[in-house]
Amino acid sequence: MSAQLDGYNEQGSSTALLTFRSTSFHSIAGTLGLRGSFDIATEWGVLTPTARAEYRHAFDGSVQQSMYYTDLGPGQASTLTQAAASRGMVNTNVGLRARSHGGIAAELDYGVSGAAARLQSQTVRGSIKLPF
Question: Which helix (H) or strand (E) holds 55?
Answer without folding.
Answer: strand 45-60
